[in-house]
Write a sequence for this structure.
């Protein structure tokens, strides 16, 4: 009922950035979800916790956006980090900035109404595939070539912005450092859609992606289409980076693909567990970051990243301490012995 | 396993046939008119100095590269067109490097052996049974839930062998698998490979240690850009093929025997 009514109304969109991205109003369901599911849920939470900030619609949007970023960032990041190509997320973020600039420039030069976010998606995906093509020829990821693409993208972006007349520099800060105040229903909508898309693709292609991440040569010998899955990986990275860019900022967005993953890799036994733990770490950092950012009026992207690094530091130091403190050591020894006995009993058939 | 063995023995054609193959990276020649056949059920030890083209020849045999001249056939098909990936178990030279840092369990790695057969969708009972059998066969069942990076070098090698067994491969290709593994584990490892070969699995092994090759392999190929020897290990020891192949680059010989 609600869905139908909201869809029929086709609410006027106040944010010009995302409007032309989709011809059909795909955001209506998101808006419905925010108004009738997520919103009331947060209102209840606000009462329970005595935190009135949770009732403000723009904070609700910010939380939902951050939750989505903290989901798709680590999901894609886990594969990237373990293929030792974490830097590509940062590179793509910086070229996405060039994409935003291209959009703004084209709009101003030819009086178009392109969404800068759309041009950012296009530029980031094209760069991702180009980098992957270069790698296929060179055989390995090189820091140098990534650094060239990263700075090159950013340089083109800065030139285009200064070459564009009018006050377009206004919105640039929001892209560079991210912003919660500008989180529109549309940007939340894009993030929710991306979460569904990225989640579905990674779930479907989980096995080939894992094989290629772990042992690309053997995957090729086993006749997997390694190139296809490597390309899929960089395109997924581009999608995640661009959709998270508005909240996290170009400069910080890569952290969500790397820091929680690094924390999870310290403690996880299995790959699936490491994805799950990375998501948990990221969700914690996202909620803590958004809350701190509101309470103290500080940058959201930065707060989220600092919270994530704090999680990483705690995990790292507790592991290091665990090795030094004899009591903890004995405890973990006993645990692993117990664990082993358990395994032997059921013949190691536990999944 | 027995039915598979008889099937393998029945097929008289070579499992891999390399015919007058020449290959180079750009202008640098790596292999010159190499011809070699690998019979089903055999155990080929591939020896030669560093940079002699051993790994490249293996890549060509498995269809991962295409020769500049000549032809390679794999299971009777042109190697690069062959697509039954589950028949090949490959342990690359650097395979265990990633395994050291990545959070992944023994079972997760062994499951990859089933991926060529079931890249999407749920594992069947047969898939799960093959995984259990493979773990059992190399004696790592009790390590199944352990993180691969926290195992010893010898145990880690067994994980990769189990992956090949899980795919019920007909061909096991190993590129210097025991680099960084202690002597005792190496002995055990090659004992395992020897036993697997005895059940009918065809093995190609690239190995620095000539002693290992002459002890376990049924055939030896000695390579340094050209093929210097291809035949029986006992004959190989008697010929001067080794010193010929290594003699081209004397300091490598000295380095190897330090």
């Amino acid at each position: 009922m609600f869905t139908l009514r909201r869809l029929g109304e086709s609410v006027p969109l106040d944010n010009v950035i995302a409007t032309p991205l989709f011809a059909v109003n795909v955001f209506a369901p998101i808006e419905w979800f925010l108004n009738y599911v997520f919103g009331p849920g947060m209102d209840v939470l606000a009462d329970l916790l005595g935190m009135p900030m949770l009732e403000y619609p723009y904070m609700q949007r910010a939380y939902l956006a951050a939750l989505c970023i903290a989901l798709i960032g680590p999901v894609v990041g886990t594969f990237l980090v373990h293929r030792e190509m974490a830097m590509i997320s940062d590179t793509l973020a910086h070229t996405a900035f060039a994409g935003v600039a291209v959009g703004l420039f084209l709009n101003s030069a030819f009086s178009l109404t392109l969404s800068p976010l759309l041009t950012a998606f296009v530029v980031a995906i094209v760069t991702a595939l180009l980098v992957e093509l270069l790698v296929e020829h060179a055989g390995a990821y090189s820091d140098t070539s990534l650094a060239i693409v990263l700075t090159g993208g950013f340089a083109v972006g800065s030139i285009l912005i200064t070459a564009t007349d009018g006050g377009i520099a206004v919105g640039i800060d929001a892209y560079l450092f991210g912003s919660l105040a500008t989180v529109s229903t549309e940007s939340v909508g894009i993030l929710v859609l991306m979460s569904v898309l990225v989640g579905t693709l990674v779930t479907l292609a989980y096995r080939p992606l894992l094989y290629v991440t772990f042992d690309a040569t053997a995957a090729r010998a086993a006749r997997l289409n390694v190139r296809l899955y490597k390309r899929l990986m960089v395109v997924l990275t581009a999608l995640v980076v661009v959709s998270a860019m508005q909240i996290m900022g170009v400069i910080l967005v890569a952290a969500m693909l790397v820091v929680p993953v690094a924390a999870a890799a310290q403690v996880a036994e299995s790959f699936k567990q490491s994805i799950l733990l990375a998501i948990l770490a990221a969700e914690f950092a996202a909620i803590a970051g958004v809350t701190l950012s509101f309470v103290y009026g500080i940058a959201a992207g930065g707060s989220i990243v600092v919270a994530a690094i704090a999680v990483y530091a705690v995990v790292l130091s507790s592991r290091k301490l665990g090795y030094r403190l004899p009591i903890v050591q004995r405890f973990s020894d006993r645990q692993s012995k117990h664990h082993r006995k358990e395994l032997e009993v059921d013949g190691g058939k536990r999944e | 396993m027995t039915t598979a063995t008889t099937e393998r023995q029945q097929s008289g054609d070579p499992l891999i046939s390399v015919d007058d193959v020449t290959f180079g990276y750009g202008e640098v020649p790596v292999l010159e008119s190499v011809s070699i056949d690998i019979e089903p059920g055999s155990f080929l030890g591939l020896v030669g100095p560093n940079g002699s083209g051993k790994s490249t020849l293996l890549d060509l045999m498995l269809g991962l590269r295409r020769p500049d001249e000549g032809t390679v056939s794999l299971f009777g098909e042109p190697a690069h067109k062959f697509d039954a990936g589950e028949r090949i178990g490959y342990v690359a030279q650097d395979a265990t490097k990633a395994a050291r840092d990545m959070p992944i369990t023994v079972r997760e790695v062994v499951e990859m052996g089933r991926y060529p057969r079931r890249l999407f969708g749920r594992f069947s009972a047969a898939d799960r049974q093959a995984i259990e059998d493979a773990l059992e066969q190399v004696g790592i069942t009790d390590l199944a839930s352990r993180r691969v990076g926290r195992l010893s070098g010898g145990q880690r090698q067994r994980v990769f062998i189990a992956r090949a067994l899980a795919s019920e491969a007909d061909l096991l290709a190993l590129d210097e698998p025991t680099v960084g593994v202690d002597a005792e584990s190496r002995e055990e490892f090659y004992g395992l490979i020897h036993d697997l070969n005895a059940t009918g699995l065809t093995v190609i092994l690239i190995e620095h240690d000539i002693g290992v090759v002459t002890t376990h392999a049924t055939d030896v190929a000695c390579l340094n850009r050209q093929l210097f020897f291809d035949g029986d290990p006992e004959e190989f020891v008697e010929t001067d093929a080794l010193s010929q192949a290594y003699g081209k680059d004397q300091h490598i010989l000295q380095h190897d025997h330090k």
